[in-house]
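Hi,

I'm pasting everything inline rather than attaching a file, because the server keeps stripping attachments. The sequence lines come first, and each chain or strand is labelled.
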Amino acid sequence: SQTIHQWPATLVQPVGSPLSLECTVEGTSNPNLYWYRQAAGRGLQLLFYSVGIGQISSEVPQNLSASRPQDRQFILSSKKLLLSDSGFYLCAWSVTGIAGNTIYFGEGSWLTVV
Amino acid sequence: RKEVEQDPGPFNVPEGATVAFNCTYSNSASQSFFWYRQDCRKEPKLLMSVYSSGNEDGRFTAQLNRASQYISLLIRDSKLSDSATYLCVVNTRGYGQNFVFGPGTRLSVLP
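And the predicted assembly:
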């Protein structure tokens, strides 16, 4: 069965510090991968998605970036965090044609920028 | 107009009540539809897919009206454990498969 792992689960970072969140998917090949952000009390905002290694699409301009160095690995990064980057970050995956193209989420990473 | 809209909530209902959630979407090319459940400070989890003919899973019934671009979720005999935020999700197939999430409707089932 497919599983998705995301880490770290929580982190507190000072303004201006770098960020790296990592996500890996197991049990599937060539998944579509996503990074979402959810601010407190708000809906999910798509940040990046990827259909393959090295292929990243950005949905919103921001000081975040994403990379996909391996088929089942997706990394979210920032060189300098802003207070507004605080939120709940979720990695997710989907595979075309399986289970109605359902999207599945990792457990999420809570980021507090202070 | 937002792509996916839901009842603003919150809904506070007693145990055993029947509660209905409504969702509308703006993209007529949307192809797949889902309801997700999100517990406080947790990731969203798939509750059920929504099919054109309507579908039922125990106490949960989902309906889709493509002509009206409307989706619904009905929960019968609500339990305390049903308390969560319910997210309507629409997939408009395209590059990278675009899943669009509604803002969610929070449900509190009270004893």
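The radius of gyration of chain A is 14 Å.

If the labels don't parse on your end, tell me and I'll reformat.
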